[in-house]
Design goal:
alpha/beta, single chain, binds NADP nicotinamide-adenine-dinucleotide phosphate, 220 residues
Length: 220
């Protein structure tokens, strides 16, 4: 993995930070993406990484960040938001959820995958959730489950259009002790990050177009 360039979105805290730390420990050149540039800088200094200001809900921010970063070998679409309440009551939450968890990942894949294809190497990890699984009733609150289901669909459909050496997979971290998961959650951020780090560093014979938890396939 040494020297692979890896962008992690929402890497300033929670699971994203644990993924960034884990990839740095594996020798990747990590790029800490965060909308708070001071937080990104501080974490990047701690990890010996690079920082980029990146708000995945903003096309302008995504384009600026990609212009700054250039090529990456690994993209981890981790940034997420969890609304509350009822799906059909809150159009603003719907728009925000789709921006952060579907449109942002799509734009990053759109802009960053061509150089992966040219280099014949790429690993894209979409941090999803069991709450976005049809097999589990798309059960997340507000727009969360719908956005994660769409992120899963983006994973399946883009894996079909990308060559086998550019792998794109989705994963569920389980219930993790972060600001989103809360203090009662059963897993540490490191445990939640493990499958994402594994998918980000897959060998060339590793899977693509799959959905994983604990390094095992789960149903969409
Ligand atoms: N925790 C769980 O139990 C659990 C379970 C299943 C799936 N997940 C998924 O795991 C991922 C990480 O969640 P977490 O538990 O670590 O949540 P978290 O602690 O709430 O962290 C969310 C991260 O996403 C970032 N973010 C939100 N909106 C953003 C935007 N517009 N642009 C860039 N970054 C943005 C946040 O940045 P700010 O600090 O700027 O807000 C923060 O870094 C999410 O995709 C989540 O859906 C979590």
């Amino acid at each position: 993995m040494s020297g692979r360039r890896a962008l992690v979105t929402g890497a300033n805290r929670g699971i994203g930070l644990a993924i960034a730390r884990g990839l740095a420990a594996k020798g990747c050149h990590v790029i800490v993406g965060a909308r708070d540039s001071e937080a990104a800088d501080k974490i990047a200094r701690d990890l010996g990484a690079e920082a980029v200001e990146l708000d995945v809900a903003s096309n302008g921010s995504i384009k600026r960040a990609v212009g700054e970063i250039g090529h990456v070998d690994i993209l981890v679409n981790n940034a997420g938001v969890l609304g509350s309440g009822h799906l059909l009551d809150d159009p603003e939450d719907f728009e925000q959820s789709m921006s952060v968890m579907v449109h942002g990942p799509y734009m990053l894949m759109h802009l960053l995958s061509p150089s992966m294809v040219r280099n014949r190497y790429g690993r894209i990890v979409n941090v999803s959730s069991g709450w976005g699984a049809f097999s589990d009733g798309v059960s997340g609150p507000a727009a969360y489950g719908v956005a994660k289901a769409a992120l899963n669909a983006l994973t399946v459909a883009s894996a079909r259009t990308l060559p086998e050496n550019v792998k794109v997979n989705a994963m569920c971290p389980g219930w993790v002790r972060t600001r989103m998961g809360g203090a009662a959650a059963t897993r540490s951020p490191e445990e939640g990050a493990d499958t994402a780090i594994w998918l980000a560093t897959l060998d060339q014979d590793g899977p693509t177009g799959g959905f994983f938890r604990d390094r095992k396939r789960i149903d969409w």
